[in-house]
Amino acid sequence: MRDSLAGASRADLHIHTMASDGTASVSQVLAHAEEVGLDIIAITDHDRIDAAQAAQQMAVTNGLHVQVIIGEEISTLQGHLLGLFLRERVRPLHSLRRTIAEIHEQGGIAIPAHPLFPHPLCAQEGAIRAAANDRDPACRPDGLETYNPTIFGTSPRRRVGRLAADLGLATLGSSDAHVLSAIGRVWTTFPGSSPEALRDAILARTVSVGAGSDHTLTESPGIFGRQMLRNLIGLGQDLAGVTRPIWTLGGERRGRDLGYPGSRRRPARYTPDEEQ
User: Fold this and answer.
1) What domain range is 131 assigned to?
2) DSSP secondary structure string, 124-182?
3) Does 249 reside within a domain?
4) What angle do CA 67, 54, 1 make, to 5 degrees?
5) Is residue 254 a part of any domain in this protein?
6) Tell me: the pLDDT tens digits for 77-132?
7) CATH number at residue 182
8) 22-67: per-residue pLDDT in tens?
9) What is the total count of domains within the chain?
10) Which of helix, strand or coil describes residue 223?
11) Residue 127 covered by a domain
């Protein structure tokens, strides 16, 4: 969907699927992104990229308008970090500085997710300033998620915007969607229409935050409840996958549905011809 600004497009760069703590399958995410008219999305499951890789292939195979960037929400020792334009998974539980460098090594973009909220999952100002002023440019973040509509993003939003301006970092908005209805609720506007144009715009600081709306107090418990239900179903599938080979005398080991064809195999692998 072209933005009202001539020649600009919309990207939602923080979306979760059933492969981590989201509640929708890859095909559902793609269909909804098409429905709401997004031009680009990034699948950013926690500490994994398999669903993002599957989504990218599925979007191309099915001739969709929406284009998919492979992303990952990486758990660093100083908080969550979005890695975008990835080719390989970035391992978690390293320092923010090291993780940013590993993202840049593969040509990716590094964006601290929902920063400044007082929680261990959120990077704080001291850590972000230290990284942004690092002597090695490879260890510096490329931008900040200044508009996140979840509880993690609402209260510190103005402070995050001021910090991004002070450090000269790109400002991005994204939905941090864990349910379908949240996809496209917030977006980033950029000149052009391709993933390459988006990457260039982030580096050139020519992206801007599109309009959006925050989760309400009544929405958040419902989203959490759906996440818990999805996890319980997954645990049941894991248990069935462990026990079935025993009582069937050697049946195929399967696990929880990660939201793309072939994902229940162990090890999981994208299999286009396999039904969900």
Assistant:
1) 8-213
2) -HHHHHHHHT-SSGGGS-SEEEEE--SHHHHTTHHHHHHHHHHHT-EEEE---BSSGGG
3) no
4) 15
5) no
6) 999 999 999 999 999 999 999 999 999 999 999 999 999 999 999 999 999 999 99
7) 3.20.20.140
8) 999 999 999 999 999 999 999 999 999 999 999 999 999 999 999 9
9) 1
10) helix
11) yes
